[in-house]
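Both lines are given unchanged directly below:

***
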Amino acid sequence: MTLTINLPPEEEAKLSNAAARQGLGASEYAHRLLMERLGLVDATPSDQAGGDRQPFYVRATAEEWKCEFEVWSQSHDRTTPLLSDEALRRESLYEDRGL
């Protein structure tokens, strides 16, 4: 299957930079990310140096953190109702404690 994704220039640059840090082309890197996200491949391949790849929070750059945070924040259901101001008042949170 061939899939075309149109990215704004700044997102394309981020993808290319992240791919280059992994020693991959942008297309191959995007494919690996997609396969990892879908759970079709292990996120820590054993063919890497001894299979002892550092966790994301250790190896990620500030730019990678920003990108992953954006992906995570966009993954949430936007139809979830927000809490009212009344529900967030201290008295509402601790009403059974008799403050």
Remarks:
- The chain has six helices and no strands.
- Confidence is low (pLDDT under 50) at residues 45-50.
- The CA atoms of residues 7 and 13 lie 9 Å apart.
- The radius of gyration is 20 Å.
